[in-house]
Amino acid sequence: MKAAARIGQVLSHFTVTAPERGTGEIASLLGLANSSAHELLNGLAETGLLQKQAPGRFRLGPLVAGLAQVLANTDGVIEAARPVVARTAEDHGETVHVVTLTGRHLAALSAQTGNRPVGVARGVISSETPLHAVGAGKLLLAQMPTAELLRLIETLELTGFTDRTVTARSHLRDQLSMIREDGFAEAVGEWHRDLATCAAPIRSHAGVCVAAFSLAVPLSRYELQPRAYRAIAIQAADRISARLGWQDIDRRAGQLPGGKSVSWDDVA
Amino acid sequence: MKAAARIGQVLSHFTVTAPERGTGEIASLLGLANSSAHELLNGLAETGLLQKQAPGRFRLGPLVAGLAQVLANTDGVIEAARPVVARTAEDHGETVHVVTLTGRHLAALSAQTGNRPVGVARGVISSETPLHAVGAGKLLLAQMPTAELLRLIETLELTGFTDRTVTARSHLRDQLSMIREDGFAEAVGEWHRDLATCAAPIRSHAGVCVAAFSLAVPLSRYELQPRAYRAIAIQAADRISARLGWQDIDRRAGQLPGGKSVSWDDVA
DNA sequence: ACCCGAATTCGATATTACCGAATGCTCAGC
DNA sequence: GCTGAGCATTCGGTAATATCGAATTCGGGT
């Protein structure tokens, strides 16, 4: 396997639920010999991508934080989203995320917890979040090029978490095409019984969906006024899109032609 | 060269001032053939550490943002610093950083810009920041194990930026030993003529300095009340240290025995 | 003091990272 | 519309190194 892929795999195993890992742990997770994992991890620790806490205990390192600062300062989406995220979290007191898709996993570009006593932790959106059970996941799936999407769906593990979880592929496909037309996705009690999430697309100047604006709300509050949260998410996403230079010509008349997505990875 | 080190190098070349790079660019920066750089960059883009904007144009990718979120949720220092950073930036309106040392470069663990019309951008602290010309750099140097520090100083490029920059190694060494005793460092107009920075150590429960709390202020405001900023930095750093479990037994009586620093990398 | 599990070291082998030359692509100038 | 320059990209051969398994050391627990 290529070195870059290997290192990506290693780093991806450092998660919110397991932020510290050992040599043997990584070895078995990747199916490598302990000695190989040892060399990898220690190498990464020397460069600063990881940090050695104790012999054989590793965490993500300072270089990650540094790179993230660069990203936060230079990435158009994050930059444009910053004030809107802060404002929305402040105004409504709910947890807010800006999310993209990395391969088959979600990644939070920014996160802000609400200020209410009962609320959702910022950790809900991470690489471990099941795509099919949160609003942002569904929305981002719905924006993918159709061919690629169909291939991906086949390989997704549609774990059932509650009785509301969508576990049938056909059902998911139907939902996604509706979401693509609506420009809005929600998942109410589909992952955790007491969690509701919804999301709206953030579009670049070219009209391509580059991220999702996501709201995570305790179910008890969400079901009091679902329409309101829907409006909040869409409005916030549109505001960010506007800051990215998107001209909302005819939001109601229809979406982009055929949902065609331009990605340079498609040249394969 | 080892793969981990190579990849660290590549990523480190994506900076605030040059957030987007091309194949040939990286190749010449690392002294590789174009084809090698090509394979590296595209590999990284596939894993999500980088993002391909156009053929041959790369930026940091969503995986970096995701990892940073993990770090922000699980790293004790960042976690403990979050409220203090927010509070300090809010109260005084100045730009605030939490900084560590990665090899020979600074890395910002968190950053918050002030809200004043005239203020310092958050980008001041990055891997490109000269160690010897900002408070955080000096402070972190001063906390290093002595032997390692002396070796590092010899290899530092003490570029002169203004007439106040410390460019003599002997002068720097003297300053650093004072800083270690004081538990405070400042750099007034040593990098940019109109910039003042100061920093105080953040200590873990074991008393080891794990990061620096840094204040970046326009010189015009700083020189009005330098003592006040000093107090703010020290107080904030101490507050964070307290949240990390540090018992400040005798701050005035003296520092840690000999400034001995425990690092698992020292076993070499 | 002893033992057990896990990390680390070490040498042999297969993988792949690297290079240089040839090709393809995009854009600027004519 | 054509041509040329500067890139990125592809490809095959070679040298470097990632990987493995066994032996050793280290640290925590009894």
Overview of the molecule:
The structure is a homodimer of 268-residue chains. Chain A has a five-stranded antiparallel β-sheet. In chain A, strands 1-3-2 form a three-stranded antiparallel β-sheet. With 268 residues, chain A is of the alpha+beta class. The model of chain A is unreliable at 251-268 (pLDDT under 50). The first copy, chain A, has two domains: 3-64, Orthogonal Bundle (Arc Repressor Mutant, subunit A); 75-263, Beta-Lactamase, CATH 3.30.450. In chain A, a hairpin with a 2-residue loop joins strand 2 (50-54) and strand 3 (57-60). Chain A is globular and about 55 Å long. In chain A, helix 6 (135-142) crosses helix 8 (169-182). The first copy, chain A, has ten helices and eight strands. Chains A and B meet through helix 1, helix 3, strand 2, helix 4 and strand 4 of A and helix 1, helix 3, strand 2, helix 4 and strand 4 of B. The first copy, chain A, binds a DNA duplex (30 and 30 nucleotides) through helix 3.
